[in-house]
Design goal:
Blueprint (H helix, E strand, L loop, with lengths): L1 E11 L2 E10 L2 E6 L9 E4 L5 E4 L1 E6 L12 H10 L2 E6 L11 H11 L6 E4 L1 E2 L8 H6 L5 E4 L13 H14 L2 E5 L15 H7 L2 H18 L2 E4 L8 H9 L4 E5 L1 H5 L21 H13 L4 E2 L31 H11 L4 H15 L16 E11 L18 E11 L2 E2 L18
Parallel strand pairs: 1-4, 1-5, 6-7, 7-8, 9-10, 10-11, 11-12, 12-13, 13-14
Antiparallel strand pairs: 1-2, 2-3, 5-15, 15-16, 16-17
Length: 442
């Protein structure tokens, strides 16, 4: 079936233009002027106030199925993603049971996701103590790279690598040409999560120095092995200078940050508000300003959600104890409006937001057919109303547990419709997503 999308505004080639986009068999086959005469089986005309965007690519999502599906699952996570304009996610190797640290565990993960994915889903493998021999089989099985921790992960079945194990993992992934993605906090620099409801106490237990030291270790290992490295969820802006210098020196390093680090601030987190707990932590407003500068300067490459949900009970909202509450923020459906609300106030364009949230994530994991409106790309698209506003009500979000630090916030930007390979996604309808392997193979 052929479809033509017509939009007065569309993000194409790093800017906005009016255009007509032809889609055949799920791929974009032509981009022409808005009024161009293009024959097709169906025509979709966006309203003048809507913008045609590429579907977002979120490479940092914890789906938690199998094993902890009461926290989240493929059905609920991918429905939430589609409602937020996200058309591709890469699932983290934890907190599922078993974690994705062997080829058999990957097969179990794929079986759990089969027929539940409303969007396209790929998978990360894990690098943990003792599984060095599993990395090559996982790579051959199609994972997009390997995640490791340099400090406690929060779950016992996914322990951190010590310095020697980390260098060995980097050497192995370097030999394979695989990407090693790192939760970069230095274990020796962490004070442990103090009990109590004081947010400043929790913040002080995970200082910027922990991120800086870990990132320096990542840089040294990548430089020494020739490996490809990626820093997950950068929260501390003090590390940007070292990142900039390493990349200038030719180290193959990329960096992400998350909506909560860019738009929330430690000064405004109430004591006891454990819905704000994440690791590394939300820091001060001045730090967030520096993260935005890092994005503008190109030192930070991309924005992803780090969607890390749990049950409401595990957040310990009744006691407000930051020491015992699960650390993670569920924001998969809200990432685009959260970032657009803040970005437009800072003078950034939708084209920049799409580079950070669609094209750059896709490119770093090798999905060149995703995250862009271009001839040959998958017709993963969304209609976005950039001026419409709404108040965040967690009960109306599609992820499994209604907990959000954005509750009550007024956001700007509403996703009106999302398409996967040119076909509209019905979040209440059947699952039509594909399970991806490295290189875009399903």
């Amino acid at each position: 079936m052929s479809v033509v999308f017509r939009a007065r505004r569309a993000v194409v080639d790093g800017g906005e233009q009016a255009c007509a986009v032809r889609v055949d068999d799920g791929r974009i086959t032509a981009i022409a002027g808005y009024a161009a005469e293009i024959a097709a089986d169906q025509e979709i005309v966006l309203a003048d106030h809507e913008v045609l965007l590429p579907g977002l690519v979120d490479t940092h999502v914890h789906v938690n199925e199998p094993g902890r599906t009461e926290w989240e699952g493929f059905d609920s996570a991918t429905r939430a993603a589609a409602a937020g304009g996200v058309t591709t996610i890469i699932d983290m190797p934890l907190n599922s049971l078993p974690p994705t640290t062997t080829a058999d565990a990957l097969a179990a993960k794929r079986a759990a996701a089969q027929e539940k994915a409303h969007i396209d889903v790929g998978f990360w493998g894990g690098a943990v103590p003792g599984n060095l021999g599993d990395i090559a089989p996982l790579h051959e099985a199609g994972v997009f790279g390997f995640k490791c921790f340099l400090a406690d992960s929060g779950v016992p079945e996914f322990p951190p690598l010590n310095p020697k194990e980390f260098v060995a993992a980097m050497a192995e992934t370097a030999q394979l040409g695989a990407l090693l993605i790192v939760h970069a906090e230095d274990a020796e620099s962490l004070a442990g999560s103090p009990s109590g409801s004081a947010y400043q106490g929790f913040l002080g237990s995970r200082p910027q120095q922990a991120e800086q030291r870990a990132i320096e270790a990542v840089i040294a290992a990548a430089r020494g092995t020739g490996g490809r490295a990626h820093i997950l969820h950068l929260s501390g802006a003090n590390a940007i200078a070292a990142i900039h210098d390493a990349r200038e020196a030719g180290v193959n390093l990329s960096v992400e940050t998350c909506p909560h680090y860019l738009t929330l601030a430690a000064e405004t987190v109430p004591d006891g508000a454990t819905q704000f707990k994440c690791c590394p932590p939300i820091r001060e407003q001045a730090n967030a300003d520096r993260l935005w500068a890092g994005l503008a300067d190109g030192d930070i490459d991309l924005i992803v959600s780090d969607h890390s949900p749990c049950t409401a009970e595990l957040k310990h909202l009744d006691t407000g104890d930051f020491g015992t509450a699960w650390g993670g923020i569920a924001s998969l459906q809200l990432g685009l409006p959260v970032i657009w609300t803040a970005a437009r106030k800072r003078g950034h364009t939708l084209a920049e937001v799409m580079r950070w949230m669609a094209t750059s994530p896709a490119d770093r994991v090798g999905l060149s057919q995703k995250g862009r409106i271009a001839v040959g790309a998958d017709a993963d698209l969304c209609a976005f109303d950039p001026d419409a506003g709404f108040d965040v009500d967690p009960a109306r979000l599609r992820h499994r547990n209604p907990v959000s630090p954005y509750t009550g916030q007024q956001l700007t930007g509403v996703v009106r419709q999302t398409w996967l390979r040119g076909a509209p996604i019905d979040p209440d309808g059947p699952a039509t997503g594909r399970l991806l392997r490295r290189g875009g193979r399903s």
